[in-house]
Structures are given as structure tokens and as C-alpha cells.
């Protein structure tokens, strides 16, 4: 295989259900590249969990092929598939810790299963707990820990057997925003310092924005979009993707906001996308001035994604209709993406 650690080729999964067959994943082809953090996002029912179960060999596809490393899961006997599964780290929304075992006991469990003996086991547990910042809680029990600490234990346990691949299934969905940020930062450290390839399954675009290199958007079991996170955020190609992006960037005024803006601004409301290049503000100001149009920012903002600016600004433009049209046309010619907000 090339630089893909996971490869899905034309994968579909159909479940039998009392109401008839349900196709959870449909004709999905996707590579997870060695060393990347791939975000997989989609609304509930989009097929994300099924995708996880197909990658970790808990399910076999109805059609298509799945490769992990050099193994074609779809061609392996169940016993060998189980061995591949043990080499994949998993973390879950509900942490899935043993409440009757200490933190050290939870982290050491996969090592015990793998036959790692004392004192090597203790050494590895200490190293893992140090990595996730919980060395001082080794003897605590899960119910003495916060949600974020529990997920750190989950991450340490998932790393115990030195996996090349970590699957995080809604790993931060049960956490508050601050704790989510900490856990995402830890996942990034796992990726950058240990070289572990990570697939982050989530319905939260914020998580994708924070750590993913690329994002796959699933919609109705299909791959709606796959690309570099900045590109997908900057130019979403389908309405589903645009809705996800809007949840994070909140860069276009909502219908209610627009109504309020209209009540206090009589001019034409126009939103421009902030491009990833310098000189944009100057170009905008000079183009408007040339056409005798004045502009005032009434909504929007600029933030950063993958160290590049992203966002949009809504202007109220005041000038004659003809002059405003000419100014907008000139901006478009110069590559500025301009959208006139609808009257409603
Ligand atoms: N074992 C199963 N038997 C029957 N239908 C299933 C089974 N597992 C999943 N489905 C159906 O397949 C579709 C995709 O489910 P899946 O759990 O993969 O989506 P998801 O994106 O992970 O959603 P959520 O975020 O709600 O978990 C849904 O319509 C679901 O009802």
C-alpha cells in the first residue's frame, strides 16, 4: 500500500432490520493517510459509527474491501481479524473504563492481555500516565475522576499496546467545552509526538477545526466531501457541509440577525469572504471609493484555521444601485467572493 494506513474501497454496509434493509454506509471509498488526523463528521445516522466498526473489523462490509496496514480485513479469517483489532486503539464517548479497577489497573489491562509481565508492565503504565498527565492519580478509581481525566485514562489505555491507529468515536461529546479543548490537545500530542494516525469521529465541527488535518463529511451513508480542513471550511461544496461550517464560523448572519440588521440599516447588505491573501481590506476600500460607495461593517468576524485567516464580513453599502452593482462586479473580478444577503 502507498501512504494509506486504512483504505476503504467501494464499501457498503446494509443491515437487516424489522422495517427492511437499512443501508448505513454506501459506496464509500476513503484513505486514511499514515500520520494524519482525519476528522469524520456527519449528523446522527450518517453512518459514522458503522464506519468505525468497519475499520476496526467489528463488522464486515456487505460489499467492498477494507485494508488496515498490509492486511485486507475483508479477506482475513476471524481470528486474524481479531489480532488486527487488538492493534487499533479505541476511545469512546462514555470512556468504557472498569470502575472496579484503579487508573493503573485500567491502563495495564491491555498489557496484561498481551502477556506483558511485571515489572515491565508497571514501567509502561507509569510512562503512559505521565504522558497523559495523570501519574499522580494512578491509584484512584474512575468515579473519583472528572470526565476529562477519565478520557485521559481512556487515551492512556488505548495507547498501551503501541497502536499505529487510534479511533476516537465521539470522544469529547460528553465533555464541557474547556475539557474538550484539553482532550483534543492531548490527542494532537499523541499524533505529533508518537506518530499515531488518528480518526476522530464527531458531530462537532469545533473538534474538527481544532485538530484535524483533513475532514470527511458523511451524509446519508455517503461521503459528501473529503479534503483539507481549511479548504472545506473556506469553500464548502454541499449544503450539508455548509451547515456544519456555519455552526463553527457563524460568519453569515442568520435569518433573525438579518431581520434585525435590516431594521436599522437601510443600505444593501453584502457579505464578503475573507480570502487567504494580503491586501484584501485595501482592495475593498479602494474599489468602493472609486465607485463612490461607502461601506460599513455591520456583522462578521475573522478567525484563524490552520494558521490562515478565515471568516466573512457583512457590509452595509450606501450608494446608488448602479454604483453599488459596479463596485461589486469589480470586486468579483478581483477574486473577492461576494454574496448579497436576501431581502428576507
Ligand atoms: N446493527 C444495526 N442494525 C440495523 N440498523 C443499523 C445498525 N447499526 C446502524 N444502523 C442504522 O444505520 C444508519 C447509520 O447508523 P450509524 O450508527 O452508523 O450512524 P452515526 O452517524 O454513527 O449516528 P450516531 O451519531 O447517531 O451514532 C442508521 O440509520 C442506523 O439506524
From TrEMBL:
Tree of life domain: Bacteria
Record-linked InterPro entries: AAA+_ATPase, ABC_transporter-like_ATP-bd, ABC_transporter-like_CS, ACT-like_dom_sf, MetN_ABC, MetN_ABC_transporter-like, NIL_domain, P-loop_NTPase
Keyword entries, A-Z: Amino-acid transport, ATP-binding, Cell membrane, Membrane, Nucleotide-binding, Translocase, Transport
Pfam families for the chain: ABC_tran, NIL
SMART domains: AAA, NIL
Name the record gives this protein: Methionine ABC transporter ATP-binding protein
Residues covered by the ABC transporter domain: 6-245
Protein species of origin: Gryllotalpicola koreensis
PROSITE patterns: ABC_TRANSPORTER_1, ABC_TRANSPORTER_2
GO molecular function: ATP binding
Amino acid at each position: 500500500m502507498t501512504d494509506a494506513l486504512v483504505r476503504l474501497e467501494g464499501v457498503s454496509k446494509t443491515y437487516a432490520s424489522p422495517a427492511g434493509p437499512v443501508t448505513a454506509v454506501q459506496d464509500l471509498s476513503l484513505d486514511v493517510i499514515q500520520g494524519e488526523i482525519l476528522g469524520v463528521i456527519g449528523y446522527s445516522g450518517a453512518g459514522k459509527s458503522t464506519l468505525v466498526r468497519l475499520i476496526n473489523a467489528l463488522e464486515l462490509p456487505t460489499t467492498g474491501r477494507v485494508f488496515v496496514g498490509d492486511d485486507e480485513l475483508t479477506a482475513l479469517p476471524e481470528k486474524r481479524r481479531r489480532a488486527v483489532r487488538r492493534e487499533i486503539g479505541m476511545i469512546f464517548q462514555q470512556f468504557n473504563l472498569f470502575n472496579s479497577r484503579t487508573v493503573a489497573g485500567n491502563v495495564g489491562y491491555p498489557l496484561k492481555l498481551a502477556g506483558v509481565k511485571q515489572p515491565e508492565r508497571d514501567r509502561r503504565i507509569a510512562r503512559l500516565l505521565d504522558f497523559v498527565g495523570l501519574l499522580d492519580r494512578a491509584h484512584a478509581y474512575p468515579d473519583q475522576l472528572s470526565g476529562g481525566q477519565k478520557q485521559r485514562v481512556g487515551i492512556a489505555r488505548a495507547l498501551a499496546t503501541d497502536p499505529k491507529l487510534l479511533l476516537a468515536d465521539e470522544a469529547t461529546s460528553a465533555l464541557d467545552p474547556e475539557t474538550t479543548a484539553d482532550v483534543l490537545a492531548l490527542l494532537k500530542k499523541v499524533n505529533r509526538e508518537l506518530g499515531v494516525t488518528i480518526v476522530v469521529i464527531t458531530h462537532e465541527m469545533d473538534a474538527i477545526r481544532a485538530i484535524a488535518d483533513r475532514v470527511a463529511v458523511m451524509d446519508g451513508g455517503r461521503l459528501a466531501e473529503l479534503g483539507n480542513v481549511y479548504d472545506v471550511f473556506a469553500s464548502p461544496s454541499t449544503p450539508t457541509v455548509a451547515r456544519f461550517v456555519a455552526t463553527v464560523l457563524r460568519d453569515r448572519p442568520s435569518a433573525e440577525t438579518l431581520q434585525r440588521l435590516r431594521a436599522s440599516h437601510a443600505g444593501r447588505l453584502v457579505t464578503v469572504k475573507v480570502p487567504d491573501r494580503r491586501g484584501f481590506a485595501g482592495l475593498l476600500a479602494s474599489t468602493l471609493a472609486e465607485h463612490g460607495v461607502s461601506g460599513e461593517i455591520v456583522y462578521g468576524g475573522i478567525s484563524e484555521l490552520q494558521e490562515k485567516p478565515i471568516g466573512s464580513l457583512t457590509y452595509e453599502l450606501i450608494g446608488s444601485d448602479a454604483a453599488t452593482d459596479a463596485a461589486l462586479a469589480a470586486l468579483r473580478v478581483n477574486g473577492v467572493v461576494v454574496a448579497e444577503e436576501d431581502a428576507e
